[in-house]
Amino acid sequence: MTFVPPKFGGLGGQNSASKNFSNILLGQYLIYQTFLSVTHPSYKVYLAVSHKIYEKFFVQVAIELILQKYQVLLLDISRK
Description:
Layout: E1 2-3, H1 16-39, E2 44-49, H2 51-58, H3 61-69, E3 73-76
Protein backbone atom coordinates (compact mmCIF):
# COMPACT_ATOMS: atom_id res chain seq x y z
CA MET A 1 0.00 0.00 0.00
CA THR A 2 1.19 3.53 -0.75
CA PHE A 3 0.46 6.67 1.24
CA VAL A 4 0.98 10.12 -0.24
CA PRO A 5 1.17 12.72 2.54
CA PRO A 6 -0.84 15.93 2.19
CA LYS A 7 0.69 18.73 0.18
CA PHE A 8 2.05 21.42 2.49
CA GLY A 9 2.27 24.21 -0.09
CA GLY A 10 4.63 25.66 -2.68
CA LEU A 11 8.29 26.39 -2.24
CA GLY A 12 8.15 29.76 -3.99
CA GLY A 13 11.17 31.78 -5.05
CA GLN A 14 14.81 31.70 -4.01
CA ASN A 15 14.54 33.98 -0.96
CA SER A 16 15.55 32.81 2.52
CA ALA A 17 11.92 32.43 3.62
CA SER A 18 11.22 29.91 0.86
CA LYS A 19 14.46 28.03 1.62
CA ASN A 20 13.45 27.82 5.29
CA PHE A 21 10.02 26.58 4.23
CA SER A 22 11.71 23.97 2.02
CA ASN A 23 13.67 22.72 4.99
CA ILE A 24 10.49 22.54 7.07
CA LEU A 25 8.76 20.63 4.27
CA LEU A 26 11.58 18.10 4.10
CA GLY A 27 11.52 17.79 7.89
CA GLN A 28 7.79 17.13 7.89
CA TYR A 29 8.31 14.44 5.26
CA LEU A 30 10.91 12.75 7.45
CA ILE A 31 8.53 12.87 10.42
CA TYR A 32 5.78 11.17 8.37
CA GLN A 33 8.27 8.61 7.08
CA THR A 34 9.55 7.81 10.56
CA PHE A 35 6.15 7.34 12.20
CA LEU A 36 4.64 5.42 9.30
CA SER A 37 7.64 3.08 9.22
CA VAL A 38 6.63 2.05 12.75
CA THR A 39 2.83 2.16 12.52
CA HIS A 40 2.41 1.00 8.90
CA PRO A 41 5.72 -0.47 7.70
CA SER A 42 4.29 -1.52 4.33
CA TYR A 43 3.40 2.09 3.40
CA LYS A 44 5.63 4.16 1.16
CA VAL A 45 5.73 7.91 1.69
CA TYR A 46 6.28 10.25 -1.26
CA LEU A 47 7.21 13.91 -1.27
CA ALA A 48 5.19 15.53 -4.06
CA VAL A 49 7.04 18.32 -5.88
CA SER A 50 6.83 19.93 -9.27
CA HIS A 51 9.67 19.45 -11.74
CA LYS A 52 10.38 23.20 -11.56
CA ILE A 53 10.82 23.07 -7.77
CA TYR A 54 12.92 19.92 -8.06
CA GLU A 55 15.31 21.70 -10.42
CA LYS A 56 15.56 24.74 -8.12
CA PHE A 57 15.99 22.98 -4.79
CA PHE A 58 16.43 19.22 -4.89
CA VAL A 59 19.45 19.14 -7.20
CA GLN A 60 21.68 20.76 -4.58
CA VAL A 61 24.43 18.36 -3.48
CA ALA A 62 23.52 18.63 0.21
CA ILE A 63 19.84 17.96 -0.51
CA GLU A 64 20.69 15.02 -2.79
CA LEU A 65 22.72 13.49 0.06
CA ILE A 66 19.75 13.86 2.41
CA LEU A 67 17.40 12.33 -0.18
CA GLN A 68 19.72 9.34 -0.53
CA LYS A 69 20.43 8.86 3.17
CA TYR A 70 16.77 8.96 4.17
CA GLN A 71 15.52 7.25 1.01
CA VAL A 72 13.15 10.10 0.20
CA LEU A 73 10.77 9.12 -2.59
CA LEU A 74 9.79 12.01 -4.85
CA LEU A 75 6.57 12.27 -6.84
CA ASP A 76 6.52 14.67 -9.82
CA ILE A 77 3.24 16.58 -9.75
CA SER A 78 4.01 18.80 -12.74
CA ARG A 79 1.11 19.42 -15.05
CA LYS A 80 1.82 18.29 -18.58
